[in-house]
Amino acid sequence: MAIWNLGSINIDHVYRLDHLPRPGETLAASRYVQGLGGKGANQSVAAACAGADTHHLGAMGQADDWVIDRLSRRGVVTTDILRMADQATGHAIILLDGQAENAIVIHPGANRALTPAMLADPLSEIAAGDTLLIQNETSCQVEAARAARQAGARVIYSAAPFDIAAVRAILPHVSILAMNAGEAEALFAAIPGDLPVEGLLITRGGEGAEYRDLTTGTVHRQAAFPVDPVDTTGAGDTFAGYFAASLDRGEAIPQALRLASAAAALKVTRHGAGEAIPTRAEVLDFLAARPADQPSE
Ligand SMILES: Nc1ncnc2c1ncn2[C@@H]1O[C@H](COP(=O)(O)OP(=O)(O)O)[C@@H](O)[C@H]1O
Ligand SMILES: [Mg+2]
C-alpha cells in the first residue's frame, strides 16, 4: 500500500548572532546554516526511510530545487509536489544568540496556499488500505482527510502545532490522532469525553510512547530506548513516519511502536531534522543489538 502525506515543506535558515537584534538594529551573523524542515517533509522522509512507498503532497515556490532533490534522495516520491509561481517556499528564519535564546519568524508560504482544486488529482489516487498523513501546517486538511476516508484509507493526523479548532474540524475524518504529551494534555482539557477515532498515539519524549486502541480499550506502552540525546528536533515526526510505515506493512501495534521508538531514539542522538532521520537498516541494526530490551506491554 502507499503512504500519502499532505505536509509542510519548510526551509530553516539558522543565523548565529552575538545577541538578538533590537528594533532598528542591523547585525551580521557569525554563522549561517540552511536545513530542510517542516513536519510534513520530516514525516515523509521518515516514512520513506522506513521503506514505505511514500508520496509527498504539498507545495513550494518555484526556486529551491535542492529540496526536491533531497526528498527524492531519501526515497520520497515528489512528483505530486506543486510549484507555485506566486508563493515562496515555506521557511523559518531562526535567530540564535550565544545563550541559546532564539527568535523565530515563520512564513508558511506555499504550504498554506494550497487549494482543494490543486489537490484533486493526487487525492483521487488514494486507494483503500492506503494511509494519509496530515499535520497542522498546511491548508486543505479537512478536505484531504475526508477524501482519503471516503476512499477507505487510514488517516493519521498529528495535532501539531496544536490548535483545538483545527483538531475539532478534522476529527470526524481521522483514524489515528497523534500527539506529544503537551498536545495530549491540551486536547484532553478541551475535549474531556470520548473521541471519535480508532486510536490515540501519544509520545512522551524520553518517557516513551503509548497507543490507546479506542475500539478495544487496550493500551500498548513502549518505553523509550535509553540514549544520550543531543537534538530532539523532529523526534515526533520520525516516530510518526516510522509508525505509519510499520502499520502500512501490516505489522501489529507493538511492533510499530518498537520500530518507531528505535528510529526516534537514533534521531535524537544526531543533530538536525530531516537529514538526521535514520534509515530502516540503521534502525534494525540498533534493534538487533537490543533483542530483549524495552519490551512493550
Ligand atoms: N531523550 C530521549 N531518549 C530516547 N528517545 C526519545 C527521547 N526524546 C524523544 N524520544 C523518542 O521520540 C519520541 C517522540 O518524542 P516527543 O518529544 O514525544 O515528540 P515531539 O518531537 O513531537 O515533541 C518519543 O516517544 C521517544 O520514542
Ligand atoms: Mg518533545
UniProtKB/TrEMBL annotation:
Keywords: ATP-binding, Carbohydrate metabolism, Cytoplasm, Kinase, Magnesium, Metal-binding, Nucleotide-binding, Potassium, Transferase. GO terms for cellular component: cytosol. Requires a divalent cation, most likely magnesium in vivo, as an electrophilic catalyst to aid phosphoryl group transfer. It is the chelate of the metal and the nucleotide that is the actual substrate. Substrate binds at residues 10-12, 38-42, 137, 237. Pathway: Carbohydrate metabolism; D-ribose degradation; D-ribose 5-phosphate from beta-D-ribopyranose: step 2/2. Pfam families: PfkB (PF00294). Its cofactor is Mg(2+). Signal peptide: none annotated. The keyword Zinc does not apply. It is found in: Cytoplasm. HAMAP family: Ribokinase. This is Ribokinase. It comes from Paracoccus haematequi. The gene is rbsK.
